[in-house]
């Protein structure tokens, strides 16, 4: 018999929807001890959160997150609200003994992230950050390929994350829809919003980044603020590029922008090693490209007239997560990555092995993001603590 896990969801936007869908679907596809129950959701706008609760099937709603955390019928607090709320909600939820799931990035700064890690570890509450791209089956397969030694000694890692939705100068900043353009709420621009994903994936596949040098640009210097109606300076980074050196000796290049006309969610990476390479593109997510140069066990070069890149359709039952979904050849989508992530978290509650990335792991991603922004200001290389 399944154990109910009562969810308190904070936020009703993009991530609130993605997470709520995962809670509704996970028990239909994964056999797990715990079954999420949509107990309550929370946001300041009563009309919006009431509509959200009715649409997704939450039993109740609150307009004050303090009240949500204080409720005895809530086991998990899910933080799907803007970045500047993560710290305060986490501290209160940990003190109340609630499990915590938090959207990325973990915090506004490393200092905030350190407080959050200390709070959840002191309270001993299960926690995870929703870096959902780890749960794309093709990316999880790339991790398997690396762990099997098929890449060998790594030399280069390159990542891009490109969008185009803020190019127009009349796009405002702030408010419920455009808080990511308001530095006071978001903390940073593409670095925290997009490159945080790229960094998390890179370190998962290739190990920790040890030093970076970066440059950022804000192309539109002023935008009208939704809440004040006044034209105000833009404090977030519209674009960022940085060089990285990994602890394993490999070199990395990272680029992100919201000014790449025609790119909607172009998230790619390529890892080149002594024995092989892998390449992934989120806009073609059912495929992982793999180049096999040498045998992973013997190191002997593969000979023959048909050597080259393989385009692996990651839909078979032996591929990560795919035995829980459809028959081979049938793909899964963006929303399924959150379901897979939630399944890993629930599995961790059963086994006692924390699902990753937890808050401590996500804190290292925050350290890299902060180092990137610091380097962009100073123009110097910045070291990242182990």
Description of the molecule:
With 386 residues, this protein is an alpha/beta fold. Helix content is 33%, strand content 25%. It is built from ten helices and 17 strands. The chain has helices at 14-29, 46-56, 65-70, 86-95, 110-123, 137-147, 183-186, 190-206, 334-351, 359-378, and strands spanning 3-10, 34-42, 60-62, 76-79, 99-102, 127-129, 154-162, 209-217, 222-224, 231-233, 239-246, 251-257, 266-273, 276-281, 287-292, 309-313, 382-383. The strands form three sheets. Strands 16-15-14-13-7-12-11-8-17 form a nine-stranded mixed beta sheet. It has a six-stranded parallel beta sheet with strand order 3-2-1-4-5-6, with helices on both faces. Strands 9-10 form a two-stranded antiparallel ribbon. The radius of gyration is 21 Å and the shape is globular.
Question: What's the SSE blueprint?
Answer:
Layout (H helix, E strand, L loop, with lengths): L2 E8 L3 H16 L4 E9 L3 H11 L3 E3 L2 H6 L5 E4 L6 H10 L3 E4 L7 H14 L3 E3 L7 H11 L6 E9 L20 H4 L3 H17 L2 E9 L4 E3 L6 E3 L5 E8 L4 E7 L8 E8 L2 E6 L5 E6 L16 E5 L20 H18 L7 H20 L3 E2 L3
Parallel strand pairs: 1-2, 1-4, 2-3, 4-5, 5-6, 7-12
Antiparallel strand pairs: 7-13, 8-11, 8-17, 9-10, 11-12, 13-14, 14-15, 15-16
Helix pairs in contact: 1-9, 4-5, 5-10, 6-8, 8-10
Secondary structure tally, helices: 10
Distance between the termini: 43 Å
Mean of pLDDT: 97
- The percentage of residues in β strands lies in 25-35%
Major β-sheet annotation: 9 strands, mixed
Strand runs, count = 17
As a percent range, the share of helical residues equals: 25-40%
